[in-house]
Amino acid sequence: ETGVTQTPRHLVMGMTNKKSLKCEQHLGxxxxxxxxxxxxxxxxxxxxxxxxxxxxxNSVPSRFSPECxxxxxxxxxxxxxxxxDSALYLCASSKTGYGSGYTFGxxxxxxxx
Amino acid sequence: GENVEQHPxxxxxxxxDSAVIKCTYSDSASNYFPWYKQELGKRPxxxxxxxxxxxxxxxxxxxxxxxxxxxxxxxxxxxxxxxDSAVYFCAATYGGxxxxxIFGKGTKLSVKP
Lengths: 113, 113
Description:
The complex is a heterodimer of chains A (113) and B (113).
Chain A: E1 4-7, E2 10-13, E3 18-25, E4 31-37, E5 44-50, E6 53-57, E7 64-70, E8 73-79, E9 87-94, E10 103-104, E11 108-112
Chain B: E1 4-7, E2 10-14, E3 19-25, E4 32-38, E5 45-51, E6 56-59, E7 62-67, E8 72-77, E9 86-94, E10 100-103, E11 107-112
Parallel strand pairs in B: 2-11
Antiparallel strand pairs in B: 1-3, 3-8, 4-5, 4-9, 6-7, 7-8, 9-10, 9-11
């Protein structure tokens, strides 16, 4: 494990379902990120949380709802998704301030049927 | 807006040859440039990075060069091996001191034995 843990690893959900993705880090980082990775747009930034505050929402549809209850945990709540939302969802964390590498989780492979 | 262009999108080399991947960035305030390697089915992993006060950095068979004037940076892999086959992403910071990263679209490197 890298220090960033994502669950579940795989998720299949219907378009009317509600599910949540979870990300957890114990690296002492103070920023967390959600990325969507698909064949068409690799590593597409969705949300940025810095010090538990959402600082960026990259024009993501409202059917994706992030939550950051503390600096170690990040959630992505999903509801009424579309088949085109099927992708690998990657969580990452970092220390802000000077620019440092992200540590990625292993991702959740989401399939919307 | 900020942008990172990466070329080529695919690269095929013979084992033992060198591989070069190039990126350009648009934000003149960018000060940190990491490179990530993503093997099939795995998470992106940081392999090397460079800060804006350095022109070149080397780590065994991989090296990165930075030209701040031209706003481009490159990844060089020498003596390539089949296990170097992966997708490589460049990235650059944007948004001032927060250190958020914007990624290139990736280069799929294939090393043929």
